[in-house]
Write a structure and sequence with these properties.
The complex is a heterodimer of chains A (about 250) and B (about 375).
Chain A: H1 21-46, H2 52-78, H3 90-104, H4 108-133, H5 136-166, H6 168-190, H7 218-236, H8 240-248
Helix pairs in contact in A: 1-2, 1-3, 1-4, 2-5, 3-4, 3-6, 4-5, 4-6, 4-7, 5-6, 7-8
Chain B: H1 5-12, E1 19-23, H2 28-39, H3 48-54, E2 61-69, E3 75-82, H4 95-111, E4 116-119, H5 122-127, E5 141-143, H6 146-164, E6 172-176, H7 181-190, E7 196-200, H8 204-215, E8 221-224, H9 228-231, E9 236-239, H10 246-250, E10 258-261, E11 278-281, E12 284-287, E13 291-294, E14 309-311, H11 312-323, H12 338-350, E15 353-355, E16 359-360, E17 363-364
Parallel strand pairs in B: 1-3, 1-4, 4-5, 6-7, 6-9, 7-8, 9-10, 10-11
Antiparallel strand pairs in B: 2-3, 2-13, 12-14, 12-15, 16-17
Classes of the chains: A mainly alpha (about 250), B alpha/beta (about 375).
Chain lengths: ~250, ~375
C-alpha cells in the first residue's frame, strides 16, 4: 500500500531554526501516520457495515481522522518543518494488517476493539502527554485531538459493553486474541529503544533518545499508553487481574 | 504459577469474594518478583530499569486470589489488590498520590464485591486518619487491621521477654510513634504491666492527651518529642513509626534492650548504634489452617522466613471473614483498647491465626519450634 501522503525521508528537510524542531517533526510524523492509518481503518470499516447509520458514522470518523492528520501537517508548517507519514512503515503496517484481518472476517466488534480500545488508547495517552509539554498551538492541537479521540472511545464503549453483556467469555477471549496481535506490535513501537532497526517514520535517526529535550520520554509515553489501555479495559468490565497479566507479558 | 492469561481470565470472571487485602510492594526486588510471576516462567523477567519505568503507571488492581481456611473448618475467599505504590514513593512527599492509589484499590475491592477489606502496610497508615477519603462503600466495610497488629506486637514483646529471661514488670518501655494507632494501642496494652512508660512522637498535644489517659490509670509516664532524650533509658522499645532510618533516630539505646520493629516497612536491624540489642519484627501472624494464592505467590507476596506468615493488618480482615463478622473492627486513629485487642486475638486464635515465630533481618530469633510447618494436618485450601 502506498503512503497516503508521499514518503521520502531523504527529501524531508527541517528548515526551522528551533533546535527542537526536528524532534517535533518526528513526533508529528508518527501522529500523522497514526491518524491516516485510522482514517484508512474507518473507511475499511464502512465497507463491512450493513446499517446505513453505521456506514455514515464510520465515514464521518474517517473524515475526522484525516482532519487530524491535516492539523498535524499544518502544525509542522508553523514551525518550519515538513511532516512526512508512512502507513507502510513496519509497525504501522502490522497494525493495519491486524485490522484488515478483522475486516476480512467482517468482524465489526473486532475492528472496534483494535481501533477504539487499542490504537486510540495509545493515541489519547500519548497526545495528552505531548499536549502538556508542546509549545503554543502545537500543544493545543495535540490536546484538542486527544480530547476528540477520547470522544470516539466513549462512543465505541457503549457498543462494546453491550456486546460483552451478551457473552463475556467469548468477548474477553476475542479481546485477548487481538491483544496478542495488536498490543505486541504497539509494545514494540513503544519500547524505550527501537531494537529492530529504523521505524521508517522518523526522518533521520530514532527520535526516542531526543525526547528528553522536549520534556518527554519514551518510557513516559509507553507508561501512559499502557495505563490508558488498562483503564479502558476496566471500563469494559474485563477483570483487572486478567488484564494486568496481559500487559505484564508484553515485550519491552 | 505459570497460568496462562486465558486460564486466569476464566477464573477471574467469577469474582465472588468475602474479603480483599490492599497492599503494595516494599522493595523493587519484591515488585520484580510479582511481575515475574505474572509474566510466567516462559518469558524472561523484566529488567530492573523497565520495572521502575512501568510499575508507577499500573492502576490499582487485583493480582491474585487468596483462599484461607480456618482450623475450625470455615473457609473464606479473597483477593489481593495491589495499589502499585512504587517502593521508592513510600514517604510523606507522595501522600496525596498514594492516598489516590489506595482509593483506587478500595474502589476495586468494592466493585469486586468484597464484604470486608483490610488495609495493609502503608495503606493502613495513609487511611487510618482519613477514612472519609475512601470511596462510597455500599456493602463493603474497611478495617485498618491495626488491632490485630497491636495484638501481635504485644504478644511478641511478651514472648521476647520470656525468651530473654526478662521481668517485664521491671522494664522501662519506650514507644516511638506513640500517638499513632498502633503506637497508642500498644501503650494501652503494655502500660499496665511495665514499670515505666516513655512516649515519643512529633505531636506534643497528642502525646499529652495519651499520657494523661495512661496516668489516670496510675501508670508512670513521660513524654518527649526528642527521641534521643529517652533512648538510653529504655530496655523495651517499640518502634511504631514509619521512619526511613529508624536506627539513626533511635540513637544510643540501652545495651541488650529488646527492640520491636512495628513500623512499616520493616527496616530496623542491629546496628552500631544498637550494639547488643535484640531486634525483632513485630505485628506478624501465621495462618495454620491453610493459605492459598492463585496464581501461586507463596513466598513472594509474603516474604518471610516462615511459611504462611502475613502482616497482622491483613490477617485481621481474613480472621473477621472466617468469623463471618463483616464490620470495621479497626477504624480511625487512637481507639484501640486492651479489650478490643483481646477480642480480635480470640477471634484469630479460633481460626488458627497466631503470632508468627519471631525473626529479624538476620533470620529467626527463636528456634521456631512452635512454628507451623506444612504437614497433612495443615492442608492447603
Amino acid at each position: 500500500m502506498k503512503p497516503v501522503i508521499g514518503f521520502d525521508s531523504s527529501a524531508i528537510e527541517c528548515t526551522s531554526l528551533s533546535p527542537s524542531a526536528p524532534i517535533w517533526q518526528d513526533i508529528l510524523a508518527q501522529a500523522m501516520t497514526g491518524e491516516l492509518l485510522a482514517a484508512m481503518n474507518y473507511t475499511s470499516l464502512s465497507e463491512i457495515c450493513d446499517d446505513p447509520a453505521e456506514v455514515a458514522d464510520a465515514l464521518e470518523h474517517a473524515q475526522g481522522e484525516r482532519g487530524h492528520a491535516a492539523a498535524f501537517a499544518a502544525e509542522g508548517r508553523k514551525i518550519g518543518v515538513d511532516v512526512a507519514n508512512n502507513v507502510d512503515a513496519k509497525h504501522w503496517k502490522r497494525l493495519r494488517d491486524a485490522f484488515l484481518r478483522c475486516i476480512a472476517e467482517s468482524d465489526f466488534i473486532g475492528c472496534l476493539i483494535v481501533q477504539e480500545i487499542m490504537l486510540e488508547s495509545f493515541a489519547v495517552a500519548s497526545y495528552s502527554r505531548v499536549g502538556k509539554v508542546a509549545p503554543g498551538s502545537l500543544g493545543k492541537t495535540f490536546a484538542r485531538i486527544a480530547a476528540e479521540e477520547e470522544d470516539h472511545v466513549e462512543h465505541a464503549m457503549s457498543i462494546l459493553r453491550s456486546e460483552r453483556a451478551r457473552d463475556a467469555q467469548r468477548f474477553d477471549d476475542k479481546v485477548y486474541r487481538l491483544h496478542l496481535d495488536v498490543m505486541t506490535t504497539l509494545a514494540q513501537m513503544l519500547a524505550k529503544e527501537c531494537k529492530d532497526g529504523h521505524c521508517e517514520v522518523c526522518h533521520a535517526s530514532c527520535v526516542k533518545p531526543s525526547l528528553f529535550d522536549v520534556s518527554l520520554s519514551a518510557a513516559e509515553l509507553r507508561g501512559a499508553s499502557l495505563q490508558q489501555y488498562l483503564k479502558t479495559l476496566d471500563m469494559l468490565g474485563i477483570s483487572g487481574e486478567v488484564t494486568l497479566a496481559w500487559v505484564t507479558q508484553l515485550p519491552v | 504459577m505459570g497460568d496462562s492469561a486465558a486460564s486466569v481470565a476464566r477464573r477471574a470472571r467469577t469474582i465472588d469474594v468475602d474479603f480483599a487485602l490492599i497492599g503494595h510492594q516494599e522493595s523493587w526486588r519484591a515488585a520484580a518478583d510479582v511481575l515475574a510471576v505474572l509474566r510466567g516462567p516462559e518469558r524472561t523477567p523484566l529488567p530492573d530499569e523497565e520495572i521502575k519505568d512501568i510499575l508507577p503507571w499500573i492502576p490499582p488492581r487485583a493480582v491474585c486470589h487468596v483462599d484461607v481456611r480456618s482450623i475450625a473448618g470455615a473457609k473464606a475467599r479473597g483477593l489481593y489488590i495491589d495499589s502499585f505504590i512504587p517502593p521508592d514513593r513510600l514517604e510523606a512527599a507522595y501522600v496525596h498520590e498514594n492516598i489516590a492509589r489506595v482509593r483506587g484499590a478500595a474502589a476495586y475491592a468494592i466493585q469486586a464485591g468484597a464484604k470486608i477489606v483490610s488495609l495493609g502496610g502503608f495503606s493502613s497508615i495513609l487511611i487510618e486518619g482519613n477514612f472519609n477519603q475512601l470511596p462510597e462503600r455500599h456493602d463493603t466495610v474497611f478495617t485498618t487491621g491495626n488491632t490485630l497488629t497491636v495484638a501481635f506486637v504485644v504478644q511478641g514483646i511478651k514472648n521476647m521477654c520470656a525468651l530473654e529471661g526478662r521481668n517485664i514488670s521491671r522494664s522501662t518501655l519506650l514507644i516511638v510513634g506513640a500517638t499513632g494507632d498502633v503506637g497508642s494501642g500498644c501503650a494501652r496494652c503494655l502500660a499496665p504491666i511495665v514499670r515505666r512508660v516513655l512516649l515519643s512522637a512529633r505531636n506534643v498535644e497528642r502525646l499529652r492527651r495519651l499520657a494523661a489517659e495512661l496516668q489516670a490509670d496510675g501508670v508512670q509516664v513521660e513524654i518527649a518529642t526528642d527521641l534521643e532524650r529517652f533512648s538510653a533509658e529504655a530496655d523495651l522499645v517499640i518502634c511504631a513509626a514509619s521512619l526511613a532510618c529508624p536506627s539513626l533516630l533511635l540513637g544510643r539505646i540501652a545495651p541488650h534492650a529488646i527492640v520491636c520493629d512495628a513500623g512499616y516497612p520493616k527496616n530496623l536491624s542491629p546496628s552500631a548504634e544498637m550494639l547488643g540489642a535484640k531486634v525483632f519484627f513485630g505485628g506478624l501472624g501465621q495462618i495454620t489452617g491453610g493459605l492459598r494464592f492463585a496464581p501461586d505467590f507463596h513466598g513472594i507476596l509474603n516474604r518471610h522466613p516462615f511459611p504462611d506468615v502475613v502482616h497482622g493488618c491483613l490477617l485481621e480482615g481474613m480472621a473477621l471473614a472466617l468469623e463471618g463478622r463483616f464490620e470495621s473492627f479497626s477504624q480511625g486513629r487512637g481507639f484501640i483498647t486492651q479489650e478490643r485487642v483481646e477480642e480480635i486475638e480470640t477471634i484469630a486464635a479460633r481460626h488458627g491465626i497466631y503470632l508468627a515465630p519471631l525473626y529479624n533481618a538476620d533470620g529467626p530469633v527463636e528456634d521456631g519450634l512452635h512454628c507451623y510447618t506444612h504437614g497433612p494436618e495443615a492442608e492447603r485450601v
